[in-house]
Amino acid sequence: MKKVLWFLFFCLACVASIWAEPASAVAKADVEQCAKEQKASFHWYPVQKTFNMISATDTIKFAVGLPYASMGSKSIALEMAPEISEGKIWIAANDVKKIFAPAAVSSSSVTIVSSSSATVVPLKPSSSSVAVASSTAVASSTAVAPPKNETAGTREVKTIVIDPGHGGKDSGALGVNAQEKDIVLTVGKLLKKELEKEGFNVKMTRDKDVFIELGQRANLANQWDGDLFISLHCNAVDATPERKKQIKGYHVYVLRAPESEEDKAIARRENKVATLYGEKNAKEELSPIEWFKLEARLEKYKQNSYMFTEELLKANEGYKIRKQAGGVGGAGFMVLVGALMPAVLYEIGFISNLEDEAYMMSDAGQKDIAERISKAVASYKEAVHNYRETLGR
Ligand SMILES: [Zn+2]
Description:
Layout: H1 2-20, E1 28-30, H2 31-37, E2 41-45, E3 50-54, E4 59-63, E5 68-71, E6 74-77, E7 83-85, E8 88-92, H3 93-100, H4 102-106, E9 112-114, H5 115-118, H6 128-142, E10 159-164, H7 180-197, E11 201-204, H8 214-223, E12 228-235, H9 241-246, E13 250-255, H10 261-276, H11 288-315, E14 323-331, H12 334-337, E15 343-350, H13 354-361, H14 363-390
Parallel strand pairs: 10-11, 10-12, 12-15, 13-14
Antiparallel strand pairs: 1-8, 2-3, 3-4, 4-5, 5-6, 6-9, 7-8, 13-15
Helix pairs in contact: 7-14, 11-14, 13-14
The structure holds zinc ion.
């Protein structure tokens, strides 16, 4: 009898232990261990909670909590979002197979979506010509052989798209004497003239006082197959007269995850028009997952956007409007999100500051601003050309 009781007890214990450790639906793998096995190096960024695995051929980027990884210009849907437990980072064992076994990657069981179609572009191109533009981008990113038509940023710089911000019912920021939409339009037109003198093919998203949606501006730039997109704006602060006196200067912005609250606030202000006037899919800020999905595509143009920014800082030496702080920032400007080319948003000065405003309103000031941007574009063209020569193109 005692033996039978012991046997029953043993059975119960077994059942309990099985229950206590339920079979997990997803088999998980320790990321660091995987990296070792794949002979990939592992980099962990604790603040962003992202990590990279760098193999001989690829850099694969992951983020804790996001069910996507990015590899080059591709975004890969993961079976399970990477998670942290017991001091380790885990990903699904199937995802490891998917990513590191090329044969598995091409099988139908695996979803690889092109970054362009997976990207949540809040202001998604809707016109058919733009759809063509993005599908060529997809083709070029997945093609094995290098594409015949070089993309913006790698080819010679010919077409410049000037985007004077705001317009029509959207006046932009208001100064005491001027409106943002008027200043940037005048500067934009002068810039066009300067650039044409230099032999560039120049397009403007607007050349009169009309309202154009943010998403439409990038669509136009893509249709024109631009090599550089320059969005012109005036900065502003809503503050006491004393603060308005202190805050002045120019700032060049590229599209990247914002690093400061100030940059975030400026992006929100410039994006507000989209939500204000009911633009489709409008939003003032990108979510972390949208940033992550966008990153692969941004990578293509980021270096060139910074190259141009550097040239603009150089051309602005001696500029009456001094640079504000470092002069360079990054945030989620919706007007830049859809542009398939190097792109910057240039806040030429603070309209809320009387001195900056006066300079931006004056004929001499506007001419000076346009000439400096034009000079920067010419130097940028030169820099891209020289870079191509070093590559033997
Ligand atoms: Zn603006």
